[in-house]
Amino acid sequence: MDKIVSRRKFVRAFFTELASKITEPGPEGDVTEFRVKMDSLKEKCQVLADLDAAVFESLVSADVEPQENEVVEEMEVAQSYQDRFAVTLFGLAGNILSMIIWSRPHLKSTSSVVLVALAVSDTLVILNSIWLELAINYSLLKQYRGLPGFDKYVIYIHNYYMQWSFILSEVVYRMAATASLYLTVIITLERYICICHPFWFEEWCSYSRICKSVAATIVFSIAYRMSNFWEARVIRVRVIHEGKITPIYIRELTEYVYLRYIHVWTFIFVDYLLPLTFIVVLNTITTIKLRRMNKIRHEISDERKNENKLTMMMLYVVLEFLVCTSMSGFISLETIFPRAEPRSGSEKLLLRQLGDSFNTLNSSVNIATYFSSWQPFRRSFMKMCCGKTRSSRNHQQTIDLQDITT
């Protein structure tokens, strides 16, 4: 960079001097002075050519001749993903199993509709996050190691169609995350009405109304995030790679500054403050009411006990969602607001890994809560994965409804 600045200063001074000498009036027929000026011009042109070649050589050598132990190996890139790869596979398998089990006829209820939609949203979050993080974390890892920014892999992912696929994946990821957030709000509201206003539950939380609410949430998430398609565009730039000028495609934000501020504050309120406040308040009220009801357990019917246990399972799901979303939100807010000093490569990589880990964990662990907290789900899971259960083998055995609620 210092050589480039020196070259620019030299070129500016050279052409200033050349212009002054050409426009300077001299005596007619002074051939000697003219030859002296031409010799000086040739010398400076040669110096300029040598300097230009040196700068070009330094730029090329920076890309093709990295220092020893500065090459990113494939195993190192895989190592940065190994802590989350198992969680991601577990989440994909768990969400697919959750969709299958909750859609079974004997578990059909208003809660199962929301949980199936939640599993679909979490699956989309995981799949799109995998595609997005491959390029982002690879670039951050190279920046953290202080390596040149371009190699064959980076050149490949910076083609036109790959960049548009990243934009599409990011928008779908945001749509799915928003849907997951507000589906959790529906779960919270549905359990609140069931526990605190049981006489209104059949009317307010009927099967058709819950289906309409889920559909409205999905439509809202798509419409709310649709504008993200116009926040970026793909432009063509040229870089020097392996001594050649290579064209690549990169994303460029198209937002104006004031629109970016509006987007940030909308993100804070719509994606975090309002729904999380709603979830915290209603779950606190539901938990207090549920504890009071458990003190008079002997007066509660079996059906009511079943609803209470389902509510406890939902509270565990919401609590896990609240913790992971809050941590991810704090990290996102910390990266949004500007700082006096730019972050180093290690800080960017650490923040990105933490935020992605909480998002992946949030979308992956629901099946563990279902399995550990809800007996009908556990039985359906064991029957599907491990064959027939003990009760299904003995067709003469009488099934007690009390056994389902315990």
TrEMBL record:
<protein>
    <recommendedName>
        <fullName>G-protein coupled receptors family 1 profile domain-containing protein</fullName>
    </recommendedName>
</protein>
<dbReference type="Pfam" id="PF00001">
    <property type="entry name" value="7tm_1"/>
</dbReference>
<feature type="domain" description="G-protein coupled receptors family 1 profile">
    <location>
        <begin position="94"/>
        <end position="370"/>
    </location>
</feature>
<dbReference type="GO" id="GO:0004930">
    <property type="term" value="F:G protein-coupled receptor activity"/>
</dbReference>
<feature type="transmembrane region" description="Helical">
    <location>
        <begin position="114"/>
        <end position="141"/>
    </location>
</feature>
<dbReference type="InterPro" id="IPR017452">
    <property type="entry name" value="GPCR_Rhodpsn_7TM"/>
</dbReference>
<dbReference type="InterPro" id="IPR052954">
    <property type="entry name" value="GPCR-Ligand_Int"/>
</dbReference>
<feature type="transmembrane region" description="Helical">
    <location>
        <begin position="262"/>
        <end position="285"/>
    </location>
</feature>
<keyword id="KW-0472">Membrane</keyword>
<feature type="transmembrane region" description="Helical">
    <location>
        <begin position="85"/>
        <end position="102"/>
    </location>
</feature>
<keyword id="KW-0812">Transmembrane</keyword>
<dbReference type="InterPro" id="IPR000276">
    <property type="entry name" value="GPCR_Rhodpsn"/>
</dbReference>
<feature type="transmembrane region" description="Helical">
    <location>
        <begin position="179"/>
        <end position="201"/>
    </location>
</feature>
<dbReference type="GO" id="GO:0016020">
    <property type="term" value="C:membrane"/>
</dbReference>
<comment type="similarity">
    <text>Belongs to the G-protein coupled receptor 1 family.</text>
</comment>
<keyword id="KW-1133">Transmembrane helix</keyword>
<feature type="transmembrane region" description="Helical">
    <location>
        <begin position="313"/>
        <end position="333"/>
    </location>
</feature>
